[in-house]
Amino acid sequence: MVDLLGLSRGGFSLALSTQEQILIEQRVTNEAKSTGVAYLFWFFLGPLGAHRFYLGRTGTGIAQLLLFIFGWMTIVAGVGALLLVGLGIWALVDAFLIPGMIQAHKREVRKQLGMDVLIATSAGLPMIDTSKWSKADRERLSAQVKRSASE
Fold first, then answer.
1. How far apart, in Å, are the Cα atoms of 114 and each of 20, 123, 150?
2. How many CA within 13 A on the CB side of residue 23?
3. What whole-number distance in Å separates Cα of residue 94 and Cα of residue 51?
4. Are the CB atoms for 141 and 2 separated by under 8 Å?
5. Three-state SS for 34?
6. Residues 15-62: tens digit of each pLDDT
């Protein structure tokens, strides 16, 4: 029994067949972000947050981009130097965080695909792609499945 969705809490777990597990892992591998590409973005465009945009961390990518822009705009006043130093430290720390960001992306893809299998098997339908669903909708469905499994 494999708990791909993280639903084993509360005595409920999801059992997937070997074929379903193989298909999910194949899709996870296909959709995984490349460590090499992430590090290339980090090395050449790190202060602009390009690696964070690539890894799906848009909010912090925008924050890094804004720090870069405002840092250079205010460098003459001396404030910009502080912003750029802070950004440089953040970018340096990101070099160590990239592998974890990639693993988190894989976990999210695996959870989403597991949810697709769960929907399909519980409803007797073909696979449903929930990638366009909002996070709230997927969580609501997950809660409904937990309730129905405990009954």
1. 9, 14, 19
2. 11
3. 9
4. no
5. coil
6. 677 887 888 888 899 989 999 999 999 999 999 999 999 999 999 999
